[in-house]
């Protein structure tokens, strides 16, 4: 006797399933997102086509399992290789997301052309754009890619405008590409699933088929994904768990700087970032990110340079603050590039510990260059910039401030401060203010000489292999840091 078709109700926001319809999803709290889905009727036992392990279903001893280095493919773009951990791993599935117009398709088109020139056939599947639109973009980016003339596109780069995943996999069996790009996953659908393209069920089914293809044929797959209004990945959260890498492209529309971050990477670290600039010839790499973010060489009121350590390199940027009298009503607090709650906390510490009355003052803080930093290492620079704008006092030397400000006013240590010091020397700064513990650790490492019990140390040229000196000044609390900054 044939089985009856099963009907389930699924939330289009979070993917939670229900046996009957209801107005609000009890899991994510969204209203009117419960949609009916029918599961196909099968008279015969289903064939299990899901990915299996390499041990043929038999348990083995963990100590007997051999390990080897993953074989990687050079993308031809150093910044992308850096974020991925050294290149694209064969058989991996990478999800890349970002706001519309941020440059996802441009970067992927550049990568596809470079891989096609080096390794062989690359298939670019587009569900959103026609062949002519992609050809126009390719002509533009090839103008500045490796010295090629406009229109000099690799013979191994194939474009396929299609949204049916079964047709896509059939084409892959014929041309056997070494690299597959799906742009985007929200436009794809499987004929085996009875729902519209972009639904939770379709996205999940298409992702499963792509994972099976990538692992079976040892072909890396890049998937472009849309984002919601809040900036999160659209679709069920399970996709992020299924793929091997999750990359996110961020940047401001009125600025050309783009930052590529890794939120998940099974083959490398998630701390690395890649820097690009959007130009008329596509995405260009920014190798010296710190030098490109800092334009002014002089000390200015309300401006303090800070640094964070991202992945394998320190990044320096300028933090500007403006404190003005509030005209009417409540004072405004505006934060661009830093967390608003951190700004509120720093203002409270300055009022309590430094005696600054900011109740009737508007405070604006901005990270110059379009950077968004979530690190607490910038707390000290924000506090000093606000103090400088409020009092009108400016440091007499080019100085860098790094440290986390606690609610008690004490400065807490930050990681990788020694590497930040080395970069500060390269950029030509005269002094760097660090939490006292970081300064003492630098003194105990033997790479610096102590002048005053860890409170003031000077980096020797032999230690950093740069013929320049920089003063490392340890500060115990926010009051010490202000005194050091203004002296």
Which terms would index this structure?
Ribosomal Protein S5, domain 2, Rossmann fold, 5-stranded mixed β-sheet, globular, 3 domains, alpha/beta, 487 residues
Describe the structure.
There is one protein chain. The protein has 487 residues and is α/β, with parallel strands linked by helices. It is 27% helix and 26% strand. Strand 20 and strand 21 form a beta hairpin. Helix 8 crosses helix 9. It starts with 5 loop residues before the first strand and ends with a helix. About 8% of the residues have low confidence.
In short:
By secondary structure, the protein is an alpha/beta fold. It contains 13 helices and 25 strands.
Tell me the number of helical segments per DSSP (H or I, 4 or more residues long). 13
Distance, first to last CA: 89 Å
What does the overall shape look like? globular
Write down the CATH class of the largest domain: Alpha Beta
Q: CATH homologous superfamily of the largest domain - what is it?
A: P-loop containing nucleotide triphosphate hydrolases
What is the number of beta strands? 25
Largest sheet geometry: 9 strands, mixed
Low-confidence stretches: 42-47, 49-55, 145-150, 449-468
Given helix and strand content, the structural type is alpha/beta
The strands making up the biggest β-sheet line up spatially as 8-7-9-10-6-11-12-13-14
Assign the CATH topology of the largest domain.
Rossmann fold
Structurally, the number of domains stands at 3
Radius of gyration: 27 Å
Question: Which CATH-level-2 architecture of the largest domain?
Answer: 3-Layer(aba) Sandwich
Proportion of residues in β-strands: 25-35%
């Amino acid at each position: 006797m044939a089985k009856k078709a099963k009907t389930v109700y699924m939330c289009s926001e979070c993917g939670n399933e229900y046996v009957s319809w209801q107005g609000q999803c009890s899991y994510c709290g969204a209203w009117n997102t419960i949609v009916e889905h029918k599961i196909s009727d099968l008279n015969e036992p289903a064939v299990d086509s899901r990915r299996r392990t390499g041990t043929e279903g038999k348990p083995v001893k963990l100590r007997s399992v051999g390990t080897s280095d993953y074989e990687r493919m050079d993308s031809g773009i150093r910044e992308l290789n850096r974020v991925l951990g050294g290149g694209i791993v064969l058989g991996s599935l990478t999800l890349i997301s970002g706001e519309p117009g941020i440059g996802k398709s441009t970067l992927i088109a550049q990568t596809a052309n470079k891989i096609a020139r080096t390794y062989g056939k690359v298939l670019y599947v587009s569900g959103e754009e026609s062949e002519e639109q992609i050809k126009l973009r390719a002509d533009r980016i090839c103008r500045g890619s490796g010295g090629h003339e406009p229109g000099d596109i690799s013979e191994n780069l194939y474009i396929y405008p299609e949204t049916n995943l079964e047709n896509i996999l059939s084409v892959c069996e014929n041309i056997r590409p070494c690299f597959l790009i799906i742009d985007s996953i929200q436009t794809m659908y499987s004929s085996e699933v009875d729902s519209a393209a972009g639904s939770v069920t379709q996205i999940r089914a298409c992702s499963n088929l792509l994972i099976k293809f990538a692992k079976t044929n040892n072909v890396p797959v890049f998937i472009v994904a849309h984002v919601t209004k809040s900036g999160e990945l659209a679709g069920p959260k399970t996709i992020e768990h299924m793929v091997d890498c999750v990359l996110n492209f961020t940047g401001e529309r009125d600025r050309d700087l783009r930052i590529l971050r890794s939120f998940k990477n099974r083959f490398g670290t998630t701390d690395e970032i890649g820097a690009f600039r959007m130009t008329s010839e596509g995405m260009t790499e920014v190798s010296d990110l710190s030098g490109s973010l800092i334009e002014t060489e002089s000390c200015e009121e309300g401006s303090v340079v800070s640094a964070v350590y991202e992945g394998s390199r320190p990044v320096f940027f300028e933090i500007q603050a403006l404190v003005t009298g509030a005209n009417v009503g409540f004072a405004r607090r505006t934060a661009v590039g830093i967390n608003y709650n951190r700004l509120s906390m720093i203002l409270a510490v300055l009022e309590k510990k430094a005696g600054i009355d900011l109740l009737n003052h508007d405070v604006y803080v901005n990270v110059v260059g379009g950077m968004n930093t979530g690190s607490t290492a910038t707390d000290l620079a924000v506090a000093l910039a606000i103090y400088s704008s409020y009092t009108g006092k400016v440091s007499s030397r080019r100085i860098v401030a790094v440290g986390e400000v606690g609610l008690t006013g004490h400065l807490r240590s930050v990681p990788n401060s020694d590497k930040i010091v080395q970069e500060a020397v390269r950029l030509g700064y005269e002094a760097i203010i660090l939490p006292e513990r970081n300064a003492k650790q630098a003194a105990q490492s033997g790479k610096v000489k102590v002048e005053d019990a860890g409170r003031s140390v000077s980096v020797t040229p032999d230690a950093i292999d740069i013929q320049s000196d920089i003063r490392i000044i340890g500060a115990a609390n926010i009051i010490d840091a202000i005194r050091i900054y203004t002296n």
